[in-house]
Amino acid sequence: xxxxxxxxxxxxxxxxxxxxxxxxxxxxxxxxxxxxxxxxxxxxxxxxxxxxxxxxxxxxxxxxxxxxxxxxxxxxxxxxxxxxxxxxxxxxxxxxxxxxxxxxxxxxxxxxxxxxxxxxxxxxxxxxxxxxxxxxxxxxxxxxxxxxxxxxxxxxxxxxxxxxxxxxxxxxxxxxxxxxxxxxxxxxxxxxxxxxxxxxxxxxxxxxxxxxxxxxxxxxxxxxxxxxxxxxxxxxxxxxxxxxxxxxxxxxxxxxxxxxxxxxxxxxxxxxxxxxxxxxxxxxxxxxxxxxxxxxxxxxxxxxxxxxxxxxxxxxxxxxxxxxxxxxxxxxxxxxxxxxxxxxxxxxxxxxxxxxxxxxxxxxxxxxxxxxxxxxxxxxxxxxxxxxxxxxxxxxxxxxxxxxxxxxxxxxxxxxxxxxxxxxxxxxxxxxxxxxxxxxxxxxxxxxxxxxxxxxxxxxxxxxxxxxxxxxxxxxxxxxxxxxxxxxxxxxxxxxxxxxxxxxxxxxxxxxxxxxxxxxxxxxxxxxxxxxxxxxxxxxxxxxxxxxxxxxxxxxxxxxxxxxxxxxxxxxxxxxxxxxxxxxxxxxxxxxxxxxxxxxxxxxxxxxx
Length: 609
Known about the structure:
Elements: H1 11-59, H2 86-107, H3 115-125, H4 133-147, H5 155-172, H6 177-195, H7 199-208, H8 218-239, H9 258-288, H10 296-310, H11 319-327, H12 334-353, H13 361-382, H14 391-406, H15 409-420, H16 426-439, H17 460-470, E1 486-487, H18 492-498, E2 506-510, E3 516-521, H19 526-529, H20 540-543, E4 551-552, H21 557-566, E5 571-576, E6 579-588, H22 589-607
Parallel strand pairs: 1-2, 4-5
Antiparallel strand pairs: 2-3, 5-6
């Protein structure tokens, strides 16, 4: 038998489609470029605000200027430090708490705490929507908190600047919730990638931080990558190129080092547990206080100041001390690093947990690096031939600690590699991050993370269809019922005698060879049932419809449910794949839905949702 050759594609239609695809891709690339520019500009502004604030508050009022990492040399060239005033160090964080508390709780209460959680929540539960004022309030409040001595990171406000603009742009363009979520996440990646000079990690982080399980939001990675590269380039054009930290050329070349690294992983898990529990313990405590929310950050700031009075290195950012630990210079001893790590946990908990504004990634870098330095120095003392460079443990400690605290192993490894310009420690970093991730699944510093896509409101519809498409009609074999078959020549008067004795609602009609030729329901017989004048003239093939909607054992449940709703029917004939006239049985709509719900509950239980 000859078959027709497929018609050649219309060249004009092909060109139109290509033009449409190029225009569509170009429009979205333009959106992500704009998000990158705004996020990068936000990073520049926030960095300047932080440098100004550090000079006028910490430097001029308290006489305290902490060391800077190599990648952040002084950009304002302002006058030098006054003599250290510890009393002012004690009071300054409370001043910052008063100012930031009034600002946040007056104009944008959702800007309290660390901003990454707010972005995660917006992605899963708010269609990516963030109020336009939030990034502005978050920026100013965070600058006040951090530059008056509050302990926190820069990623929270920067994440909200980028996320807020992405959300704003999508809303103004009247895009869907799905598209708004992607643009918001692209803003998160751009902001974080630029402020920490880690564009690849920023893009991966925006896709990974949304979930507690090792899962990526794949459709976010490319948009975040575009925006992150643009934001990073803009930031570096202003402040210079290079990594945030400059690490010596550490290398991994002795497998015996893996033993000490495994010990480091255990130490990091314990420290991360302390960090998370301390942070949310303080948060819960301050929520119980029956005082106005505006005052709480000031009380948290005063507690921070008390710690800072004795341990000034735990105030503000603390990145310069990580740089010293990488170089193993000067006062970097086991006691100093241990005090830095534990003190930083306390000051971060008080500063942000009380309602202050700032991120939690920055302090994690300091805490993890300090604990890595402690373990590295100790092993270097007892095993100098094996552990020749204790500074390498600082790098791996940063990665392992934040993995334990945030459940983001992949992006964190890239983050620390980019931030330290150190790529030769990937192997020990992978091992330590794997151990810390597996051992710390019970907690996370980002409590708005959901377990996986099953638990995300952003994917509830997609997940429904995905599950339906994995189930076939053959999986419901016990629910395919044998039914009474009606011969096509059966007189209606005879069926009328049979009908009261059955609970069946759909009746397949068969010819003499047993082939399915039609079907009718109990509703279809009403017209004849109450017309006694014609009932003796009617046979059952006259009532049955021959336009039969059927399903096969190979159909998925998504297809089956569409067929049920096509004509709002409650039961479908199941026929053989190669012969639609060969009836296997009937499948009821109610039982299909019940089977799906059962499978969904099983999957949720396995996923721990």
